Amino acid sequence: QYATTGCSLTLHHTEKPAHEDICEYRPYSCPCPGASCKWQGSLEAVMSHLMHAHKSITTLQGEDIVFLATDINLPGAVDWVMMQSCFGHHFMLVLEKQEKYEGHQQFFAIVLLIGTRKQAENFAYRLELNGNRRRLTWEATPRSIHDGVSAAIVNSDCLVFDTAIAHLFADNGNLGINVTISTC
After folding, report:
1. 184/182 Cα distance (integer angstroms)
2. Of 128, 134, 139, 138, which Cα lies nearest the Cα of 168?
3. How far apart are CA 105 and CA 112, in angstroms?
4. Which residues of the chain have pLDDT under 50?
5. pLDDT at residue 148 in the model
6. Measuring CA to CA, which residue among 45, 117, 116, 125 is closest to residue 84?
7. Where are the alpha helices (DSSP H) in the chain?
8. CA distances to 77, 88, 94 from 113, in Å
9. Where are the domains of the chain?
10. How remote is the C-alpha of 116 from its chain's centroid?
11. Positive or negative CA dihedral for 34, 35, 37, 40?
12. What CATH code would you report for 54-183?
C-alpha cells in the first residue's frame, strides 16, 4: 500500500495488514495529543503542520530545557505540549493528565521524536522533577511520533505520577519538568 511513498517490501497477503500498521512509509498523523486534528502527511511535513496549525506550541532550543506546565489543577483531562529542538532534530514533550479510574488522576510525561523509530534509537531523554529535598527522574529512549503518546501511556512507558506527587513538586499550580536530550 505504501510503495508510492518508498516501501519496497513484497509480502504475502496475510502478512500485509500487520506490516502496514508499522510501516515507516505510512503517512504520519498529527502528533498532538487529543483527537481533534485529523491531519496526515509525510514526516518532512510534520513540523510545518505543527507551526501553522498549532501555533500555541512553544519551541525551545537546546538539549537541556525546562518544560513548564501551568495550571496543573485544571479539572478533567488536560494536555501540555512543547517542542524541543537540538541535535538537528525536533522533539515533542507531552504532559497529559487523565482520570484513570473514578477520582484518581494521573500525569503522564513523554518525549517523542519527530522522526522514525530507527532515528529515535539514537537518542535518550531524561525527565526530572525537583522539589524540596526530593527528586523524581525518568530516563528512556524517545518514541517516534509514529508510535504516538497513547501507546506510551497504555504501556506505562513514560514518567507516571499522581496528583499528590505533582503537588510535592508544583509551585503555585505550575510544574517545571527538566528535560535533557542526549545522543547514544
Report:
1. 7
2. 134
3. 22
4. none
5. 87
6. 125
7. 16-22, 43-53, 117-120, 148-154, 163-169
8. 23, 11, 11
9. 54-183
10. 13
11. positive
12. 2.60.210.10
CA separation for the pair 88, 134 (Å, rounded) = 33
DSSP state of 81: E
Distance separating alpha carbons of residues 59 and 43, to the nearest angstrom: 18
Whether residue 177 contacts residue 170, with contact meaning beta carbons closer than 8 Å, is answered with no
6, with CB counted inside 10 A (0-12, 13-18, 19+), is: exposed
Separation CA 168–CA 135 (nearest Å): 10
Q: Is 159 helix (H, G, I), strand (E, B) or coil?
A: strand
pLDDT at res. 168: 95
Question: Residue 181 in contact with residue 87, Cβ under 8 Å?
Answer: yes
> What does the block give as the cell for 32?
498532538
Cα separation, 72 vs 74, in Å, equals 6
Cα torsion angle, 74, 163, 76, 142, sign: positive
Q: Are 177 and 165 in contact (CB under 8 A)?
A: no
